[in-house]
Amino acid sequence: MTRRPFLLGLTGSIGMGKSTTAGFFRDFGVPVWDADAAVHRLYAPGAAAVAPIAAICPEAVSKSGVDRTALKAWIARDPSSLTRIEAIVHPLVAQDRARFIAEHADAPLVVLDIPLLFETGAETWLDAVLVVTAPPEVQRARVLARPGMTEGQFAGMLARQMPDAEKRARADHVIETRTLEQTRAEVHALVRKLGDADA
Asked: What highest taxon heads this organism's lineage (predicted)?
């Protein structure tokens, strides 16, 4: 029987500590696939998404690849364009993810960092889901500390994401990112629990 890695989805709302948590998994030798990084790769010059995006929105493509700011401006003008962009990008992201999993077929555990995990139905093909969370006041302080972030932008981001309470209710595992030390310890315990004997 062919053994495959345990696939753990990692998600959480903005400012909850997802990137830091993903970094701790990497520290413990766990392969981590990052959905946002995959999109950046696909938008790079000569990458797979560039020509199809150019065909539907020429002004969003230049020598430096796909301009995400231009795409956002197009979506703001024509909300239906999002469906056309997703029809191009989602299958390419899925291919990138499948390739990553295949490359790490011998790993006991693979983490898949997916910001809109529940929103896109990814929990249906994962073995388990980890949600990172933090108290609302901590989340707000973290996000507003980012350069250029405004209260309005933060409110808009929250409005587009599934509420934290609902994510936690649907998760198999939850880590509250109170301190770096505590978060790292909880990640280590989870890595051991899910079968990485080398951790």
From this structure: Bacteria
